[in-house]
Design brief:
Blueprint: H1 2-22, H2 52-61, H3 65-79, H4 84-96, H5 100-112, H6 118-130, H7 134-147, H8 153-167, E1 179-182, E2 188-191
Antiparallel strand pairs: 1-2
Helix pairs in contact: 2-3, 2-4, 3-4, 4-5, 4-6, 5-6, 6-7, 7-8
């Protein structure tokens, strides 16, 4: 009986010894921390924060529309006002969530505000196309194209698609076109119907 117990206790004893040795660290194996620091480094509170609008645009590009809305709201608090850029970002994020009514309202406020850009007009046109308001969207795309002097490929493509859709509206059934949301800066966002 004793030999049977001893055989069963050997693996447990070896396991305990192995765990005990694994916890031992020699002085040369330790990572040197700066004086007075006990934990991993934290956030540099003196560093310059990234603009909330830029973060919001990045989140839209990543498909994180709810987080983008929070980021744009935080940017509005930081700036102390809601300007055309924030309204356009909020409208674009709501469009990504499929909230066409809210997106249209926000983008209309953005184009009415001082500092509205051709991209804001384009994005309103995308919302109107998604809502089935083709004639008004065509006029909005024309305005965006004129304000941009025809320099944006995405705005030109959206205008072309809207014109083609309005010309062929009687003969075209359920046609899905890919309209492009445009952000201020170098990136653009492609809006595609969800399956």
């Amino acid at each position: 009986m004793i030999s049977r117990l001893t055989r069963a206790a050997r693996p447990a004893a070896l396991l305990l010894a192995g765990l005990g040795l694994a916890g031992c660290v020699t002085g040369t194996d330790r990572v040197a921390l700066p004086e007075g620091q006990l934990d991993a480094p934290g956030v540099d509170l003196k560093a310059e924060a990234v603009d909330g609008v830029e973060v919001g645009h990045r989140l839209i590009a990543a498909g994180e529309y709810e987080l983008a809305i929070k980021s744009f709201n935080r940017a509005a608090l930081d700036r102390g006002k809601i300007d055309a850029e924030i309204l356009a970002g909020l409208g674009s994020a709501n469009l990504g969530l499929g909230r066409l009514g809210q997106a249209e309202t926000l983008l209309r406020r953005a184009i009415a505000a001082d500092g509205a850009q051709p991209e804001d007009w384009n994005n309103l046109g995308v919302v109107l196309m998604e809502a089935g308001k083709t004639a008004e969207a065509e006029q909005i795309f024309k305005r965006a194209f004129a304000l941009d002097n025809g320099e944006s490929v995405a705005i030109r493509d959206n205008l072309r698609l809207a014109l083609a859709k309005s010309e062929n509206s009687a003969t075209t059934g359920a046609q899905t076109d890919d309209y492009k949301l445009v952000r201020r800066g170098s990136s653009d966002f492609l809006i595609r119907p969800t399956p």
